[in-house]
From TrEMBL:
PANTHER family in the record: BINDING PROTEIN TRANSPEPTIDASE, PUTATIVE-RELATED, PENICILLIN-BINDING PROTEIN 1C
Organism: Filomicrobium insigne
Superkingdom per UniProt: Bacteria
Assigned EC number: 2.4.99.28
Domain Penicillin-binding C-terminal: 622-703
Protein name as it appears in the record: peptidoglycan glycosyltransferase
Length: 706
């Protein structure tokens, strides 16, 4: 025993030295990690700006500042078979090691000594993330040690899921493609959440040597690398041999695809409006947008060179824009494809005639079965003519609007008043542009002002909703908030026309014959052609959707023979058929609709015209008295808490002065020569406001004060 003691002492001393050396190495390792700068995680946040549709599907993406495609993605958004193959091929113990796989490192070292060459590597996904973040790929011992330090540092600061997400965003796939999502879109044209086994294996193989294995440049090398991943998956037991053999027979893509380019004009406008956002959420429906973009391109090609098309589709029950096609083809320079024609100010042609007649119905001047004259007529120095240079004599207003006759529309606007029409457009939230800021004239009945296609879509959204105001929006969060807060409710201050008047208009427009070679349906629609054949329009709606179509040249050059009925209406009907197979029925008639023949109408409504109007109004044109403000059933804020109620200005239109105002049956002091009066409410509650003109005609509204 005495002879063994010196040996034991030596062994103990050696062990202690080894332990101390190990502890010293650990301490040095810890010191190195502590002194290492924080990992440059901001690199992983430098992502492409993406524009998403209503279901978070990609509409368009933009490259980063360094011109790379690097799209946002998380490990929960990729196909699980891809992840299984990734771990089997790159890092089997990813979820358990601390950044460095000691087992793999030991195995690699033994294989190197035994074979005198590198047989397998020991790089973990965390080490690869460290290299991607540092933007360095050094194969030296010092470089590997730096990766190990950074990997351990990352494991201490981030979760495994966060590390995996960074790899999925930054892994190189050849050229300027980084990240598995960008690669999946570029090589397969699909999102990585559903991949074939062959596609998943290829995406695992490419980052190993992205430039030499790019499918669009060396598909043979890509196929060999893909098959190697599949074989490793069989060895690891994550896929069967039969699955691997089937996947190996799949063709490797030879080309790189373009990234989605849906709603390009709207996407660019969003970037300008919100430059601080990296993800933009729109109400656009990807499928509808793609279908209508294709439709616009096809029809423009058939119509002829230099002509472009624009289309807007709206869910008029919410105001959400489902598709917004700004041109026939964004990259078509001959058609000025980069110009967004949904927001260009153009003449609306005859598409304002429904509003003209609607205001006449609302004012009690006419009914759809009222007779009106279509004869050569002069309004001062203005003498309108019909599009076909012919006249139809005595027709009903239903026929006049259905056939888009010009003279009756101008006669109705003469009675309604051009100022009132423009004022109603402005009150509805639109900004009509008059030529050289001129005073509104009768020519606006035939398109003598400027509006955008988006304006017209909003206008017909009001018609489709019984005259109530529904603001259009393409922002998903905005649409959801408006829906939750009830902002799509009736806004009397911005009402387009009364529900009865709106229904009359829709009842006429739904019977307009469909264009040639198209399938008819229960669509209320109107066409328009601007002066000089510069713009062709068609706008229609059913019980849920509004679609507006424009055709023309963006440079406003005349195109002889271009009309709304022949050029735009076929696109409108085709768009409705692609949007939905079955038409949603139009809204039923509201209370107050008068469904009678012309012979059964009250005498003042049987015939419209200057003689008839003068006879029924005492020899001069007189509109019935209407309370312009406050609107019926509106809610008004008049004060809060102990503060006194704010006075309100009551306004009336039409009628014969003097006017008598009453609130809850009690008269207000008012000037006999004014149509406005100040009313001081007593406080919150409901109030009934009435006005009576000199002829005894009355209008009433009920308001809620809060």
């Amino acid at each position: 025993m005495s002879r063994a003691r010196p040996f034991l002492k030596i062994a103990a001393a050696g062990a202690a030295a080894i332990i101390l050396a190990g502890l010293s190495a650990v301490a040095a390792f810890e010191i190195a990690i502590a002194r290492l700068d924080p990992p440059p995680l901001q690199v992983a946040d430098q992502l492409s700006v993406t524009v998403l549709d209503r279901e978070d599907r990609l509409l368009r993406a933009f490259t980063t500042e360094d011109h790379r495609w690097r799209l946002p993605i998380t490990h929960t958004q990729v196909d699980q078979r891809y992840l299984k193959l990734l771990f089997a091929f790159e890092d089997r113990r990813f979820w358990t090691h601390g950044g460095v796989d000691m087992y793999a490192a030991g195995r690699a070292a033994l294989q190197l000594v035994h074979n005198q060459r590198i047989v397998s590597g020991a790089s973990t996904l965390t080490m690869q993330v460290a290299r991607l973040l540092d933007r360095r790929h050094e194969r030296t011992a010092a470089g590997k040690f730096s990766q190990i330090l950074r990997a351990v540092q990352l494991e201490r600061q981030l979760s495994k899921g966060q590390i995996l997400d960074i790899y999925l965003r930054l892994a190189p796939f050849g050229g300027n493609i980084e990240g598995v999502r960008a690669a999946s879109l570029a090589y397969f044209g699909r999102e990585p959440n559903r991949l074939s086994l062959s596609q998943a294996a290829l995406l695992v193989a490419l980052p190993q040597s992205p430039e030499t294995r790019r499918p669009d440049r060396n598909w043979k090398a890509a196929r060999i690398a893909r098959n190697r991943v599949l074989q490793r998956g069989v060895a690891a037991g994550v896929i069967s041999r039969a699955e691997a053999e089937y996947a190996m027979a799949d063709v490797v893509p030879h080309l790189r695809r373009s990234f989605p380019m849906l709603a390009p004009h709207l996407a660019e406008a969003e970037l300008v409006a919100h430059p601080d956002r990296t993800v933009h959420h729109l109400t656009i429906d990807r499928n509808v947008q793609a279908a209508l973009q294709t439709l616009a391109t096809q029809h423009a090609g058939a119509l002829g060179p230099k002509l472009s098309t624009a289309v807007i589709a709206v869910d008029h029950t919410t105001g959400e824009i489902l598709a917004q096609v700004g041109s026939a083809s964004y990259f078509d320079g001959e058609r000025f494809g980069a110009v967004d024609m949904t927001r260009a100010i153009r003449s609306p042609g005859s598409t304002l005639k429904p509003l003209v007649y609607g205001l006449g119905f609302e004012a009690g001047l006419a009914h759809p079965e009222t007779l009106i004259e279509d004869r050569p007529t002069r309004f001062g120095s203005y003498r309108p003519e019909n599009f076909d240079d012919s006249y139809h004599g005595t027709v009903t207003i239903r026929e006049a609007l259905g056939h888009s006759l010009n003279v009756p529309a101008v006669a109705m606007l003469d009675a309604v008043g051009p100022d009132r029409l423009v004022g109603r457009l402005k009150r509805f939230g639109l900004t009509p542009v008059l030529p050289d800021d001129a005073h509104p004239s009768l020519a606006i009945a035939l398109g003598g002002l400027g509006l955008t296609l988006e304006d017209l879509a909003g206008l017909y959204t009001g018609l489709a909703n019984g005259g109530r105001y529904v603001a259009l929006t393409h922002l998903r969060g905005d649409a959801q908030q408006r829906h939750l807060t009830g902002a799509v409710a009736d806004d009397g201050k911005r009402r387009l026309m009364s529900p009865v008047a709106a229904w009359y208009v829709g009842d006429i427009l739904k019977d307009a014959p469909p264009p040639a070679n198209t399938r008819g349906g229960r669509i209320a629609y109107k066409t328009g052609t601007s002066y000089g054949y510069r713009d062709a329009l068609a706008i229609g709606y059913d019980g849920r959707y509004v679609i507006a179509v424009w055709v023309g040249r963006p440079d406003a050059t005349s195109t002889p023979g271009l009309t709304g009925r022949t050029a735009a209406a076929p696109i409108l009907f085709d768009a409705f058929s692609r949007l939905e197979e079955q038409r949603v029925p139009l809204a039923p008639a509201p209370a107050g609709v008068l469904r009678v023949s012309g012979a059964e109408l009250p005498p003042p409504l049987k015939r419209f015209g200057r003689e008839a109007t003068e006879a029924s109004s005492g020899g001069f044109l007189q509109q019935p008295v209407v309370i312009a403000f406050p609107p019926d059933r509106s809610e008004l804020e008049v004060g809060a808490g102990q503060q006194p109620a704010e006075p309100l200005l009551l306004k009336a239109e039409g009628g014969q002065l003097p006017l008598t105002w009453l609130v809850d049956g009690r008269p207000l002091d008012s000037s006999p020569h004014r149509r406005e009066v100040l009313w001081q409410p007593n406080g919150p509650g409901f109030a009934k406001v009435s006005v009576i003109d000199a002829e005894g005609r009355v209008d009433r509204v009920t308001v809620r004060l809060q």
